[in-house]
Known about the structure:
CATH superfamily of the largest domain: NAD(P)-binding Rossmann-like Domain
Distance between the termini: 36 Å
Number of strands: 12
Bound molecules: NADP nicotinamide-adenine-dinucleotide phosphate
Strand order of the largest sheet: 2-1-3-5-6-4
Helix content: 25-40%
Number of domains: 2
Structural class: alpha/beta
Radius of gyration: 19 Å
Largest sheet: 6 strands, mixed
CATH architecture of the largest domain: 3-Layer(aba) Sandwich
Strand content: 15-25%
CATH class of the largest domain: Alpha Beta
Amino acid sequence: MSDNKIPLAGVIGSPIAHSRSPRLHGYWLKKYGIAGHYIPMDIAPSDLAEAVQTLPRLGFVGINVTIPHKEAMLGLADIVTDRAALIGAANTIIFRKDGKVHADNTDGYGFIQNLVEGAPGWSASKGPAAVLGAGGAARAIVSSLLEAGAPEVRLSNRTRARADALRKDFGAKVNVFDWVKAGEMMEGCATVVNTTSLGMTGKPELKVSLDYVSSDAVVTDLVYTPLQTDFLSRAAEKGCTTVDGLGMLIHQATPGFERWFGQKPEIDDDLREILLAE
Ligand code: NAP
């Protein structure tokens, strides 16, 4: 692309209508007066490879990638960051000027930044972390907690085999507990994370007991609709510091925006409200 073209970015997935990323990036483009656009694109899996070849020629400087393309995208990139390779999925793509496609995963970065900002004084190294769930998002969470210095990650998932697979990939600092022991595994943990989809509007509540959680623990939920989940409310009643999941969504978007549009975006309350509006 010639340097005087208006930079384009977007999010590809299927379906894509539910994505809040256009609202998020659109807010920052307007806030910083950047002459660029961020576009949602519904791309079928069979069209993914062609889209990745074509988009840079149309003026795209990068894209976010969501379900169902996060894993397949790794095979289409020329450069894959270590963390994206370890997680096994990409969410942020840069179409470099030299023609190379660079794939990264910023979910773990967003998760850690959200805790740093939402729970001042928190550090992963303060003690073991308990992670509920072993789906796609859990891989980024486990990876980032270990990278940030968690001495141990305790993992429990309804389908134990998925948790065992994470232990195999991430090593002996990950210890797997049966789903019926998910409450007990939180004893002595400094960080507790819900990465399951339970508690989301329209889904059953996450009923795991918080009897063993210390009031010193920082408890966070990846679910952000509703913002205050029942899980977070119960943790707050126990005196724990709680951090909602909306900040992770916002923070994971900042590295992409900065690389594509050359501006480090700031997070403000207006943005949170805009993202939560129906
Ligand atoms: P996923 O790959 O579909 O994994 C879903 C997880 O929820 C699995 O661990 C699954 O257990 C568990 N689960 C679902 N129904 C259950 C039930 N009835 N009982 C017990 N466990 C159940 O989804 P994901 O991509 O990891 O996303 C998980 C959640 O994180 C979603 O709510 C998503 O919106 C949220 N998320 C938020 C952010 C953010 O920025 N805040 C980023 C990514 C994801 P099984 O393996 O047993 O099925």
